[in-house]
Design a protein that fits this description.
The protein is an alpha+beta fold and about 120 residues long. It is built from three helices and five strands. Strand 4 and strand 5 form a beta hairpin.
């Protein structure tokens, strides 16, 4: 019997290079664009965006406890230069029920997760 499942999809925005090729300014621009989209979500998708730069210690601990927080330090991301300018332009969105998440500018520009 399946108790739960998680589906993850990585996506990148048109007109932007992949993660290793974007600038700090472009990463911030991507985050700004997608956070505006998050504000329009209603119903089951309504939630909150957390910029990694602005997390309080309490929020950080809760996101870690929920197994939502992605972190700097992955050697593969470091090898392809994806950790530069950390944590600028990066964040996490989740809905109120914590069943829908979007990681912004971790590896892909968007990592969409549904549980």
């Amino acid at each position: 019997m399946i108790v739960s499942t998680r589906i993850r999809v990585g996506r990148n925005l048109k007109d932007y290079a992949l993660g290793p090729g974007i600038t700090n300014e472009q990463r911030i621009e991507i985050m700004t664009r997608v956070t505006k989209a998050f504000e329009s979500y209603t119903g089951d998708l309504a939630g909150k965006f957390y910029s990694l730069n602005a997390l309080t210690e309490k929020q950080r601990k809760q996101l870690i406890a929920d197994h939502f927080l992605f972190k700097e330090g992955d050697r593969f991301l470091e090898a392809c230069n994806l950790n530069r300018d950390w944590p600028n332009g990066r964040g996490i969105f989740h809905n109120e029920a914590k069943t829908f998440l979007v990681w912004v500018n971790e590896e892909d520009q968007l990592r969409i997760i549904s549980m």
